Amino acid sequence: MKMDDRGPKERQERIEEKLARMKTGQEQEAVQQIIDFNKTPADLKVVMDRFVIGQEQGKKIMSTAVAFHYRRLGQALKQWLAQNDGNIDVALRQTMTPKANIMIIGPTGCGKTYSSETASKMVGVSFVHEDMTKFSEVGYVGQNVTDILLDLLMAAGGNTTLAQMGIVYIDEIDKIATETTAASTCRDVSGRGVQKGLLHLVDGTENAIQIGKERISLSTKHVLFIAGGAFENLEVKVKKRMSRQGLKGDWRQFLMADDLVGFGMERQLMGRFPVRVVYDKLTTNDLKDILVKSEDSALLAYRDDLKAWGIDLEFSDDALTEIAERAEKEGTGARGLISVLHRVLLEDMFRLPGAYTGTFAVDRNYVRDRLG
User: Is residue 101 classed as helix, strand or coil in its secondary structure?
Assistant: First the structure.
């Protein structure tokens, strides 16, 4: 009877011991990966060029900021691990490095999110994408900004060490800007409250996550935050200021925190994003290049899908141009390509598999017929 009672307990202890060893192994591997990180900004940009088309200056700034952040963190961790007998938790707490969070400004579909996710894959760290339109101040309907930490922890497989070295992409950050309307002089309290909560996270503080009855401590001191937003009409505001001050040149070179504060962002929060990148609206040529050059192109995906049915999909050059032009009119950047391609190919994707094998050629006239 005693043996029967002890058996399950011993198995549970063995399972917990095995899980602990796995967690320790994951932590050591992740930290070693950061320590060994030696990619230069140019290395990162070369890889990014394979997936993100256009945005040359933006990719240079992004690649430099990400490379220096993780190279700096890796070297500091290496030093503190040597001084603390390899204790990862102690090393993470004692490691102090300046952190240059990144703000990406640009229209929808220009590659803001994609650049950030690609960067995280190149470094090999956890990545989480947060849409700020679903968040609200504590006491209001919506998610609390501290939920970002829970998402980050989940992306890291529940491992706090991995989560502390990850990347958080904060999307639609301009949507939590405070506003003053003509009908009221009151500030948008909820938006301001969300910004204040976000400031606490970005500041690199120790945070407590409540999961059921368990409280987990998670520091954001080494988390790289990348924020993105369209900030519509920001260019106009900056150019007006430049005119008043007698400044001439590319408005992107004169973008200041004051301009973002004037848009409705909190000054303290904007100060935590010292690296600012402005992405351009994608042109027809950019969109066409995405179709044929990006390794993650929707066109390649459709080709592979039809290839599995023995169908070789081919597009003429003028057909690609037509698709790019139609996508540009959609006003959603690269996302418009998927919409246009789907409308062009939907009927053929339905009727051809199982009924036809061989080459299926699409020219400009065919695209126009399908799209009307």
Answer: coil
